[in-house]
Amino acid sequence: MRFSLKHLLLLVGLGVLVVAPLGQGNYIVYMLCSWLIFSIAAMGLNLTLGYAGQISLAQASFMAIGAYTTALLTLAGWHWVVAMPIGLVLCFVVGLALGFPALRVRGHFLAFVTLAFNTLVFLVARNEDWLTGGTYGKFGMPRPDFGIVSTDSQLNFYYFTLIVFVIAAALMWGIVRSPWGRAFRALRENPIRAESLGIDTRRLTLLAFAIGSVYGGLAGSLVSPLVQFIEPGSFAVIHSLRILLMVVVGGAGFFYGPMLGAAVVILLPEVLRFTEGYYLILYATLVIVLMVFCPSGLIGVGSRIRDKLWSRTRDRGDLKQGAQL
Amino acid sequence: MNALTPVMSVRGISKQFDAIKAVDDVSFDVYPGEILGLIGPNGSGKSTLFNCILGQLAADRGTVEVGGQAVSNKRSCDLSKLGIGRTFQQLSVFPEMTVLDNIIVAGQEHEGTMISRLFGAPDAGLTEQAEQMIAFFRLSHLRDEQAGSLSYGQQKLVDAAMAFMAGPNIVLLDEPAGGVNLTMLAGLKERLISYNREHATTFVVIEHNMEFVMSLCTRIIVLAEGAIIAEGTPDQIRSNQMVIDAYLGG
């Protein structure tokens, strides 16, 4: 494997993530953890929406399933390492079930189905207080302890989250660059043609929902020990819309899009806090401007800048030969 | 030729949309290695028949057998696995993928299992084969271009190359010549004939371009108002009075 500029940038990026929390206060480290966690949730939605083209407004509900499962089990004395996979399996199964409507309805109809599902999960979390604690939620979840290293301190929890994030991102990279990734893109671009080429679009649609949901569940299972308090409002529809915003702002269907999008949605409001009462107005304006001028998101902005600085203008293969075939 | 066992048998296919009979009790056999043309005026039921054969429309009546196996209720992904490829009347490439990726995705589902495709090579080991297919259709200079950026005719060629990538036994081509310029059309016909001879692949072709279909096909079936009105060699069809009256004109 050749060492390229991409590999170098990846190493620099990882280095920045390692040193980013050093010397920072608890709040900043907490925000960085939130960014990593929401990046995981957005990565999952990016697979469902960006790669496979299936709209979902229910990612926060899978965070809820992951978070509540982890909370209930860790409060019952189970280790996070055992509780988390149980949450993920649950998310996979529920995500698979949520994928079935996508076999019959598409576009905004599917969006409404998933939105209704998110509302359903929210209502269950709020009303079934024997299980979820109702509006009081669950609190006091322990952070994972690995014997020689405990994640009780904010910094240690950050590094723990970073390790989970890197593993999740590597697995996602493996999926999207495999033939599955190509099949997901085929499903997004032309499902009828994809099916005629032997791609089982039903199975693939279900898998897109199930895998995306697992990433939502993983993010939820990290929220639980990070905040050590969860309640239904943390997983309402508005949070699914925030995750959708992360994917769209970052660049749907691009691997690094969700991470950039999560940075904008989680970190930008904090950066703009110096403007006091104007920060939300500024934040909203920046997002609107971005969407109007670059619908392909921040990755699209990056490509435009790159093309301006290092012009990649070239003739298309057939035009080089002087005439179109 | 008719002494051979058919590779595909269509028996009594009918399809009605409200009061309109789109396909009316159509039966025919397709024999190994032949290039069968399906012609007829607009609205004669050619594409509906294609879609019924390929499982994209449920026929009201009738059956389709491929290699002796009933495939009437099979999904098009299953038909692809049984060795049936197809092209579409409309442009049907994956526009945001490169030409190479379009061709690889057309073959990858026929390699290994779903799990092996997840953990195997990103190209499913198909790059070399895909490049050969691209070269066969004389698209090598466009290998890394986005399929959506190509001209209409070039996308038609990519579409055809995709249909052949999995090495099908039968390929159903829906108006392959539609919108393709004359130079490219000659190239396409030559490619199709060459592929047919090299691989003994059977073709069923829907086409309006009479010159193209008469010079490409070995046998032609003529549809009018959903029913077969004539069947024969190109020369027999040209001189059939019923076909001239219904379709070819004086």
Question: What does it look like?
Answer:
The complex is a heterodimer of chains A (325) and B (250). By secondary structure, chain A is mostly helical. Chain A has one domain (24-293): ABC transporter involved in vitamin B12 uptake, BtuC. Chain A has 15 helices and 2 strands. Chain A has helices at 5-19, 26-51, 59-75, 80-102, 107-127, 129-132, 154-177, 179-189, 191-196, 201-227, 237-250, 257-271, 279-293, 297-309, 317-320, and strands at 138-139, 229-230. In chain A, strands 1-2 form a two-stranded antiparallel sheet. The mean pLDDT of chain A is 92. Helices cover 37% and strands 24% of the residues of chain B. A 6-stranded mixed beta sheet of chain B has the order 6-7-8-3-9-10, with helices on both faces. A 4-stranded antiparallel beta sheet of chain B has the order 2-1-4-5, with helices on one face. In chain B, a hairpin with a 2-residue loop joins strand 4 and strand 5 (69-70). Chain B is globular. The A-B interface holds A 174-175, 177-183, 185-186, 189-190, 192-201, 203, 316-318, 320-321, 324-325 and B 54, 56, 75-77, 79-81, 85-86, 88, 92-97, 101, 104-106, 108-111, 114, 117-120, 122-124, 138, 141-145, 149, 151, 153-154, 162, 166, 183-184, 187.
Q: What is the secondary structure topology, with strand pairs?
A:
The complex is a heterodimer of chains A (325) and B (250).
Chain A: H1 5-19, H2 26-51, H3 59-75, H4 80-102, H5 107-127, H6 129-132, E1 138-139, H7 154-177, H8 179-189, H9 191-196, H10 201-227, E2 229-230, H11 237-250, H12 257-271, H13 279-293, H14 297-309, H15 317-320
Antiparallel strand pairs in A: 1-2
Chain B: E1 8-17, E2 20-30, E3 35-39, H1 46-53, E4 61-66, E5 69-70, H2 76-81, E6 84-86, H3 99-108, H4 114-119, H5 127-136, H6 152-165, E7 170-174, H7 182-199, E8 202-206, H8 210-216, E9 219-224, E10 227-232, H9 234-238, H10 241-248
Parallel strand pairs in B: 3-8, 3-9, 6-7, 7-8
Antiparallel strand pairs in B: 1-2, 1-4, 4-5, 9-10
Helix pairs in contact in B: 3-5, 3-6, 5-6
